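## Example record

The block below lists the input lines for one assembly entry, exactly as stored, with component labels intact.
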Amino acid sequence: MTTYRAIQGMTVQSQTAASTAGQIWYDSANEVFKLQKVLTAAWATGGTRSNATFRGAAIGSTSAAVASGGTQTPPLPSGPINNTTELYNGTSWTGGNAAPLNLGYTTSGGTEAAGIVNTGESPPGSGTSTLHYANGTWTAGGTKTFAAQNSLGAGSQDNYICIGGVFQPSYAPQNNVATYNGTAWTARSTYPISIATGGCSGNADLAYAYGGDSPPAVATAADWSGTAWTTGTSMPTGTNNMAYNSAGPTTDVLSANGSPSTPTSLIYNGTSWSTTAATSQAPPQAVMAGATTSAGCVKWGGPGSNYQYTEEFTGGGPGSTTITVT
Amino acid sequence: MADYQYIEATCWGKGFITHEDSRHISFENYAGNLWKIPNNDQHANRWSAGVAGVKKTLVEAQAIYDADLVVRQNAWDALPDDAPEKDASSSFYWARPTGITLTE
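Predicted structure tokens for the full assembly:
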């Protein structure tokens, strides 16, 4: 009979971290045996929110997220757009300071310390308001150059891009684009098509926008250079109302779910799209916080009573699993 | 033999489905705290036991789902006729909820 030492070239080591893939090691810090391997990407349930909302604001990261506003359910499919705020610490949600405006069909991004929300519809709101969030404090930002909700948006509080959207009374998709420097919005070159409810990553200097409702749902994508739009790599299929990592770079895009209801998650690496782990819930109009797939993202919401759940994404890569020794 | 089974279990949040769970088990969540997981699968059965899940027959699961659907349809019906959710030209348009037939 062969031995671990013969296979691996060493005995089982007592360490605080693994050395190589395939290694069985004793985690001296946690006093358990572990197997180091390459883990696949996966979703898991996160903390359960007090409110089931969709299309609210999503700011921050998996370990420090801010959920504010959204359309509240029940009643279904649509209920009062609200200003309730909840904070996530990576484990559970707790109440936060309410936003000064009701936040419906927003775009948002940034971090818990420097978040940004394009208010969308805050009935009967203007569709041009901007809010800043900083560790519990809400303040007013600049006035956007066009009125919209259900826009595509990405970036940080001082480097943000907002694309398209719809607004009352026609609710027709538009192609307006504006960028934000933390103080003021500037109108920019229009998006190649009229669009709403799509996804976007990057910022005002470099962005990748994809999918959305033109209508119908499109797979079309476009790259923003900071000054102009060029044709981007299309999504595999026409998708709208997806949850996406608006705080992420253009080379690490995570798009989850969408309309019609689907558990599919996709990753775009700056060159091509690929399918990654499926979610257990498949709501359209969920929202997502988090920057990169390697650091993880968290999504929540959807138009249904069971969408107070949160799902956390972790990207693939080196990791260890505990071995139960009996 | 059915490929899948339905479990009724209330998600408590973090740890209900771990990343390791979802690497081994395909999960589909439906209204009514229903979770569709593989049948005759050790990982899935262990997960169900760990979350105190109650196995439902296909008929029972469908009834739970349908009851929730009625609630959603009633809410949609209660919206004013001129609500954006009922305007097919509006981005807020949301078709009246329709049910699905669960399968194993």
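Chain B has one domain: 4-86. The first strand of chain B starts at residue 4 and ends at 8.
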